Amino acid sequence: MPAPISNLPEFSVSEISQAIKRTMEDTFGHVRLRGEISGFRGPHSSGHCYFSLKDQNSKIDAIVWRGSYRKMERWLEEGLEVIATGKVTTYPAKSGYQIVIDSIEPAGVGALLAQLEERRKKLAAEGLFDAERKRALPYLPRVIGVVTSPTGAVIRDILHRIADRFPVRVLVWPVRVQGEGAAEEVARGIAGMNALAETDGAGERLRPDILIVARGGGSLEDLWAFNEEVVVRAAAGSAIPLISAVGHETDTTLIDFASDRRAPTPTAAAEMAVPVRAELLANIDDRAARLRRCSVQMLEQRRANVLGLARGLPKLEDLLAIPRQRLDTASTQLPAATRRLLRERMQAVTALSRAMPRLDRITQLPTRHFAEVSAQFARAQSVYLRQQRQGFTACATRLSPVSVRRGIERGSERLNNATGRFARAARREDEVRRARLDQVSSLLATLSHRATLERGFALVRDLNGDLVRGADAAAKARRIAIEFADGSVTADVAGTTDTPPTPKARPKPASRAVPPRGGQGSLFD
């Protein structure tokens, strides 16, 4: 029996598939879809990414084309709950439907925090947050590099604070601090500062001694660029000591762990970078005055010592008295000794002459030989007398007042030279000890709790002097002592409350123009 004839139109498989595709795309168009990423294995060899979005009851296939994947790569992670925006369409080859995602974002702060904690553990395991990597900041930097937005209030606050405390040259690397590409720009800014030459052709220093990476406050999403791995690695690899000043005091980003020092605010970062110039000048003046007083006191002490030693020396007349007496005695004995010597020699000659044969027996000796012997004897006697006289004259010269006075002068000169060398050695030792004292003083000021009190905090103790760390402890103490930066007060504790008082909004200070100092102009003139 033939089939009944129907007037329904006939469609090919491709025609019905395309009709369904157009109907679905026209009905839904672009939608925002919330779900959990499932089956994520990274991009395909083509660069496209395929996975699924699911909830507790259903699942839908998802596609991210290669061009869009580079923009949302950091959000894609297995098991992460996201909100995807895209176009719902069909895939006729498998008779299935899917969503082509254009953009994606985490579904709430909880997902971001979970991703942030996982990233923090990963980087900490690599040693990027180790305390051994932290370096000390230079005490007096010549150039300060700032990586931040050039149009915000942050750079103005930093420039004003540095100009008020210790005007130095500030080099700004402008970057975006929020949105797509901000993390890459911040990382390039840190690397660019490190790549600068030490000086330019004119001898002007270019490379900063300290880097400040700064941004104002904001939500977790606004500050997310400073949680990116590329920024953290750039901060950890910086050869220049780096201060992170991202957000307000309660905001924490991963760059804070990798930096050498974390500042609660950008203004606090400027205070960490440079000391107060007026305080340094006052300290130098005080030390110079103390040095002058010590020098004068040391000279007076040396002068008193020299005068005391001079009083202990004998008088010149006492030193010369005995040599003079010996000289007078020798001068008195010299004629008698000379006569006695001549007499002894004459006796010897007489004895010799008696022992000689009689003259009539030696007439045969030449007369000239006898005369020569007589002359030699006379010359020898004259030479001997002259030598004795010269010896006495030299002794008298050495013992004269002029020679003794010259010896005393040479001794005084050697004493003065020794005193000068001692004074120079004392000054060098004093400079070394002062340098050590300056380092210890700077470290004490950095670690002291007084700096924290200056920023508006207070230290609470009970009447026994023990720290009060919470509201329960304060209620038990009933009476507490509160220490501020400028003094202490005593207060009675009336009770505790779970809701802290809402602080009043502080008026925003009017920005004031700071004239350029040290040869550097303003970015905003």
State the main characteristics.
five-stranded mixed barrel; disordered C terminus; 16% strand; five-stranded parallel beta sheet; single chain; elongated; alpha/beta; 14 helices; OB fold (Dihydrolipoamide Acetyltransferase, E2P); Rossmann fold; 525 residues
Molecular structure report:
The chain contains 14 helices and 13 strands. It is elongated and about 200 Å long. Among the domains are: 95 residues, Beta Barrel (OB fold (Dihydrolipoamide Acetyltransferase, E2P)); 150 residues, Rossmann fold, CATH 3.40.50; 68 residues, no CATH class; 43 residues, no CATH class. The C terminus is likely disordered. Strand 2 and strand 3 form a beta hairpin. Helix 5 runs parallel beside helix 6 and helix 10 packs antiparallel against helix 11. It is an alpha/beta fold. The strands form 3 sheets. A 5-stranded mixed beta barrel has the order 1-2-3-5-4. The chain has a 5-stranded parallel beta sheet with strand order 7-6-8-9-10, with helices on both faces.
